[in-house]
Amino acid sequence: MSKKAQPTGNGPEEDGPVPYKQSKVDESDKLSTLNFNSPTALFESLISPIKVETFFKEFWEQKPLLIQRDNPSMAAYYQSLFRFSDLNRLCLQGLYYGKDLNVCRCINGKKKVLNKNGKVHFLQLRKDFDQKRATIQFHQPQRFKNEFWRIQEKLECYFGSLVGSNVYMTPAGSQGLPPHYDDVEVFILQLEGEKHWRLYSPTVPLAREYSVEPEARIGTPTHDFILKPGDLLYFPRGTIHQAETPSGLTHSTHVTISTYQNNSWGDLLLDSISALVFDIAKEDVALRTGIPRKMLMQVETPTAAKRKVSGFLRTLADQLEDRKGLLSSDMKKDFVMCRLPPYLENGADLLEPAEKFPTLDSTIRLQFRDHVVLTVGPDEDQSDEAPQMMAYIYHSLKNLRQVHMMGKDEETQLHGLRFPLSHMDALKQIWSGSAVPVKDLKLHTDEEKSNLAVSLWTECLVQVF
Length: 465
What we know:
Elements lengths: L3 E4 L19 H5 L7 H8 L5 H7 L6 E4 L3 H10 L4 H9 L6 E7 L2 E4 L8 H10 L3 E5 L6 H14 L3 E8 L9 E2 L3 E8 L2 E6 L10 E2 L2 H4 L4 E5 L4 E4 L4 E5 L7 E8 L5 H17 L21 H18 L10 H8 L24 E4 L5 E7 L10 E7 L19 E6 L3 H8 L4 E2 L8 H13 L3 E3 L1
Antiparallel strand pairs: 1-2, 2-12, 3-4, 3-5, 5-6, 6-14, 7-10, 8-12, 8-14, 9-11, 9-13, 15-19, 15-20, 16-17, 17-18
């Protein structure tokens, strides 16, 4: 079987609780050509035959990559992930226009939304698909389909960033979306039929927001090709693109897997600089002196004030070199709070701790390490003017996959534990991933050691031996 990987010049647009136990094996499990042994193994198999080192050195955030596989096994596996016929069953579960699904078509270079109101009925959906030549855009299928949950959960562990997805179904001779670019890194898996793609040089490299681009502005395509089942396409955020299903063929189905939204160095600075300023201002009286009178009332910032701010920024940079790290205000917590829970191969229930209770004579080992964040921050429950620093463990073990990538709501919660900073050395012992006897934890008293082990066990964070 021939395999060819082609560099291609620069993302697409993008109900009740789901049980954690798996009672049946998806068809895709039997066909899978992906390696789910670890997050790294999954990504390696996803972009095969391209090597990971080559991908990140030559393509990631730089240029598109087209992998045309001509591999019947991979094509069969991709087709098993999602078929148009799956919509019938999903509509019976309860899908709603706008929230779960959009019906749209590109007409004269503009996106026309053809949604009805309320609940989606498959017969009406099929009618719009056949008669109006409309594209069906199914949002975040990992909420319903276990195999997407399985893939995206591993990719979130691999990238350390949220991973979303949309499935696009487009009839023959039709196009769903106008030329546009996105604010995400995009991996496209062709599932059914064929899709004609055209890519264009970015007008905004590594864009931070979605934008439609008029045909007159984008010029000629840098890449023009057909995706077939089993093929994979990657392109960086900012890549202008459009795609249509060729005439005379069956419909096309592809899934867009996206990541790295708001995950840049600029975002990290925005997230951490306020905590850094607050921390250093406690030690540097110059940062606590007042700004000039009426400065906020002026139209333009005075030159002297800009020089002052530049000096403060240099001071921050110099002092940062001597500090242990940056304190993340929101990025870490948002990631942990909004990501997928672990996909459980054996059907075990995460919501209940294991039967074996930890004692001082037990040995414990951290589990689900890729779903746990250990960090330091101010005591959020302390109301005085000088809050104490605390050690925090946040985790995603109790997250609900049915709200994944659907925005924060009352069901999106931050799960975790808070400990005195004196527990940090003991937490790092456990964080190493090695088995640690409870009595050997670096804490002063046996009571502290036992309480730490029990707290982590209660949250299903440790195995007990």
